[in-house]
Amino acid sequence: MHRYLSIWFPALLADRALRLRPELKDTPFIIAIPQRGRLMVKAASLPAIKKGIVQGMVVADAKALLPELKLFHYKPGAEEKLLTRLAEWCLRFTPVVAVDLPDGILLDISGCPHLWGGEQSYLDNILRKLKASGFQTGSGIADTVGGAWAIARFESAHSIVAPGQQDAALRSLPPAALRLELPVLERLQKLGFSHIGSFINLPATVLRRRFGPELLTRIGQALGHLPEVPEPLQPAAVFREQLHCTEPVHTRVAIDIALETLLQRLCDRLQRAGRGLRSAVFKIDLVDGGVQQIFIGTNRPVRNAVHLLKLFEPKITMIAPGMGIEVFTLEAPAVEALSGRQEAIWSTLGGGDTGTELAGLLDRIAGRMGDTAIKRYLPAEHYWPERSVTPGGLFEKAETSWRSDRPRPVYLLPRPEPVTVAAPVPDYPPMLFRYRGKVHNIAKADGPERIEQEWWLEQNQVRDYYVVEDAEGARYWLFRSGHYGAEKPQWFLHGFFA
Amino acid sequence: MYLSSGCQQPVYMAQALFHTHIFQQLQEELLLLQGLRAPLDAELQDTGLGIINQSFPHHAFPVGAVHELMSSCPEDAAATTGFIAGILGTLMRSRSCLWVSRHRNIFPPALSIFGITPDQVLFVEAPDPKMALWAIEEGLKCETLAAVVGEVQELGFTASRRLQLAVEKSRVTGFIHHRTGRVAGNLACVSRWRIKPVASAPPEGLPGVGFPCWNVELCKIRNGRPGTWKVQWTPQGFYVLPEKKIRQEVIIKKAG
């Protein structure tokens, strides 16, 4: 069974303006929006409302009523931005939070309030903090989204509806509590239905004929006969562990203990699920509303708490606890099955043991230098030397074997460097070549080894490779690009032999 | 003091034996303090260096230590890499090794000639020298690895000391390849090498390039004897060429 909390901000825009300019506390002001060529009142501050200014008034009228009225212009999308920020802040209370436009947010609190000592203290906790930040709120907890919504907006005294009781709770509320369109509301009013209880028991066919299908849907949603799933701000991670502090903490020791505890819990869960994590986020919610997070990634599925703690360790210093930390959250957004096959490959790389230590080393290197810093090469089925190796993943097995029948240099230049040579006879190795200003006389040579460009990849000149040794004993890999013929062939240096 | 003949002799013999035993023990201890532990039986593997082994303490290539190699040009660097690869081949067996450098120019397929499975080598390309040094040190601490090869430009004494301390615990072998060839001051490494390519010697009368051939100079070795050898890499492994008598060069000076 689900429990939902709806939070209503009756004066969202005015509260926002006051937060930005606290000095306006006692000044009547309005937020104006241009509509049909006129400026209309979108929201008004409490002092302005007291003087009789209400939403929907023409600004000129309001000014006439109250000449000292201050006027702000409405920024399109302001509510959505603000509500999203509030919803993000609420993520510390539950993983499923949705923005409920135009003036509320909705929390799926199933299974959360007991961490705060029950629904009442959970609710008090949230509302107290919102109030401290300067927001007026209405709130409702019920089994359904519609029920919570209605209670938050239309019931002032009892904001928590006991499980299974929304039918009774809703009966005395006006029809508007069902989130209905204006024409439907008008028709209901015309027929004298002043509260929900007066029509809720009428036969469905009657209601549908008179008020359309929408009314039935809303009733069903409010009572829980029809499903309604709020669209969460962010999909909740399946592997997520949370730790709440009874008192705000700000020492390194406390952070370490929290992280260790959470890692242990998460790893236990991963163990039961037969999975390992590939990335993890450690989030810290501060007392003053700030959120900080540190992120780690691993190069293979891991569920070893010690290993993960080592990865987090260098990043913990980035946390600035400020006024104190309230909630610690550890999430694993990316998890993968941890199979025996992967472990087998690691043991070949790690020589006997399961390679945990090696994996830890590689993760630490990747954490500091990025994933691309570590490379492992596998043979590729290509003749062209540059293409004969391919960077392989850490778990990949080579599909073909390494060839060692042909001489290959230990150093291969990333780009062949042009050299000038003296080669008298076609298809003979050169007698000497000049590389970086130095003339090398060739004493011994092997070749040519003709390496053709793979025609299905690229149309290029063939290369004739020669292994040469100069008079001093240094060994080089030279090649001539193209056949002897019309054009003068180009010579390149491509590598150094050991 | 010879008070009487005969009966005192065995006592002196026993004393002398006792002394040599103490000497041996002290020497062991000194070596240990200098970062050279007597190799465990499991570690005693022949790197195939033949006669060069006689220059090392314990007559075996020091594993679990940091070796320093110098090269100043790409040709020398290639020869040095070949020599390292030759030793790595025996050290690695089925384990892996970490190869740290700033810009990788090793061509992995060539390593298979030296008995290394190239996909067992994990290459790390570090963005700056400091990171490279850090990765080398971390690698040397990882007992799972057989060896770490680090290509660096500069290495200070303190840094080299840290590396040496790391391997004393983990027993990983380190090769620090100085690409600049500038002789730094004293380092805490166990040995210093300089390898240069020399003309290969194909079998008599045959044309073409022979097996890789190097002039291997062991400039410094702690508690060992430095020396210079001509070493060839053959499909069977290292082959140290027998020393030839150095022919007296006849210098003919042209007059006038």
Broad shape of chain A: elongated
* Strand line-up of the largest beta sheet of chain A: 14-15-16-17-18-19
Order of neighbouring strands in the sheet with most strands of chain B: 3-2-4-5-1-6-7-8-9
Main interface: chain pair and counts:
A-B, 57 and 61 residues
Overall pLDDT of chain A, averaged?
81
Structural class of chain A: alpha+beta
Main sheet summary of chain A: 6 strands, antiparallel, barrel
Please characterize this protein's 3D structure.
With 498 residues, chain A is α+β, with helices and mostly antiparallel strands. Chain A has 14 helices and 19 strands. Chain A has helices at 12-20, 46-50, 59-65, 78-90, 119-132, 145-154, 166-171, 182-190, 204-211, 213-223, 252-273, 305-316, 340-350, 356-369; strands spanning 4-8, 29-35, 38-44, 70-73, 96-100, 104-108, 138-142, 239-249, 275-286, 291-302, 325-337, 374-379, 389-392, 411-422, 432-435, 438-451, 463-470, 475-481, 490-496. In chain A, strands 14-15-16-17-18-19 form a six-stranded antiparallel beta barrel. Chain B is built from five helices and nine strands; from the N terminus they run H-E-H-E-H-E-H-E-H-E-E-E-E-E. Chain B has a nine-stranded mixed beta sheet with strand order 3-2-4-5-1-6-7-8-9, with helices on both faces. The model of chain B is unreliable at 245-250 (pLDDT under 50). Classes of the chains: A alpha+beta (498), B alpha/beta (256). At the A-B interface, helix 13, helix 14, strand 12, strand 14 and strand 16 of A face helix 2, helix 3, strand 3 and helix 4 of B.
Short description, anyone?
The complex is a heterodimer of chains A (498) and B (256). Chain A is an alpha+beta fold and 498 residues long. Chain A is 30% helix and 30% strand.
